[in-house]
Amino acid sequence: MINPTKSYRKTFIILLITLVFVFIVNLSLGSVYIPLKQVFLALTNGELEKDSWGSIILSVRLPKAITAIIVGSGLSISGLLMQTLFRNPLAGPFVLGISSGASLGVAILILGASFLGANITSYTFTNFGLAIAASLGAFLVLSAVMIAAQKVKNTMSILIIGLMFGSLTSAVISILAYFGSATQLQQYMFWSFGSLGNLSWKEITVLCITFLVGISCVVFIIKPLNTLLLGENYAKSLGVNVKKTRNLVLIATSLLTGVITAFSGPIAFIGLAVPHLTKLLFSTSNHKTLIPAVAISGSIIMLICDSIAQLPSSEYTLPINAITSLFGAPIIIWLLVRKRKVYY
Amino acid sequence: MKQTKEHIIKTANLSIGYTSKKQVSVIASNLTINLEAGNLVCLLGENGIGKSTLLRTLTKVQPALNGNIFIDNKNLDNLTNIELSKIMSLVLTERLPDSSLTVFELVALGRQPFTNWIGYLTNKDMEIIQMAFKKTNTSHLMNSKCYELSDGQLQKVLIARALTQDTPIIVLDEPTAHLDLHHTVNTFSLLKNLATEFNKTIIVSTHEANLALQLADELWLMSSSKFVSGKTEILIENNELEQLFNSDLICFNKVLKQFSISTSN
User: Fold this and answer.
1) FRET pair for A180, CA 20 to 30 Å: which of A155, A263, A284, B210?
2) Nearest CB partner across the interface for A229, out of B97, B127, B143
């Protein structure tokens, strides 16, 4: 008997080609247009027409594009994990209050500094300090939501609880903001707009390592996640340790979302919208296919959003968060209006 | 045939029910079960009498209040999830969560306890899956999505999934609840066949009392006053079935071995 499960090889190849194309285009677009051929040359250490192009690509655009790929795939995978775990199509890092948790961590660090005695060295405000604060915040809020989720079985209630945690954290942030100084406020606001740029290679290395740790957790829960598609009782009867799987999902998502949010700000809608788009494209629930598919689509969409945010050939950069929302919200509305069954 | 005489499920002084912070609510106590392998067992009883609780306790979904359960001579408490998954498979009443799983993927999930960390299906796994499709006569559905199936088809596919788990015991909680007569009879004859031909021990809770009387090797009768288990003929002989339903409207006809509506008044 031949295994009739579709391998979707063709779709994967098309997606990968698209990813490479979008990646190169992303590098060539920006305040200065650099021809595609020159981008290739810069990446392969070739002779360039202008020397400045080389440094623009290697020290500005390349780190940004790599960040976009990590952010896009990391958030999309987190969204997918949440949707399967909560068996709810509207679950995602944003809706369940994880991003708000990360924001809270950052807000406490930046805005609350004056409360904690202002003698905190400027080092804590570096990206690393922010990363740790955001991850802790994300982990705390996600744990709180998970604990609450164990008490109520109704998935609708879990979503509402997640939203309530989001409101709670925003309330705390508002209070902190009210007492914060103008510079602190500005610093926080800029962080919350979201940005893929401004990361040094050292910070990208940290981002990459955390991403890899998160992803390696994910690889080991592919099998139990597929079993969880049958519901918890069937999963248990198939020998799945549901609690352990839940905890691994918790760790993986808070690592991925926490660190990504820390370095690039709370990026909206990617975690929610990309898994749905991918499921439309692949029409499968098998995580062995979905996880790589979601990672690639997430990267593609994030790169496109970043290219748009750069406003090609202009000096301005729009907040990336605005672009992802402009792209994500209509997709969710479209999915619901078309009354397509939204699967998770 | 000494092997079939072994008791595959044994209980001693079993009490079932729920514990909450405030109190312990006992649903049934002193349950004694001695079940031989290769039997089709039907669990009968009124709505809300505790059939599901009993099945949930026997399948370790919830703990027993008191007493021990021995599955295959091993104490259920000492079996891990993964060990139990190789002895007992389930078909539950709960609806499957929405997903776009194909029928093949659903049935193949039955191999989960045996596959490697990523769930790779070996040739042996594929053979077992194919056998399950054949036995349940569902091979033509293999490439459909689960949400496209009718209730009758879905029930057969769920039984196929339990079969791929390749366990000596299969427990089904009201598998025919949403099925018409045709599919109900079909499902029961499939279960009977699995018990006699493949020596599976099959435990079914059901409201199809008349079908159960015709097909089951053994009955477990649950009523508010007591629990009895035993061979169908012996229970009929001992007038146990008359006490199953606490109602004047239903009577048990010992000659026909069927329940019918009471016509005496």
Assistant:
1) A263
2) B97
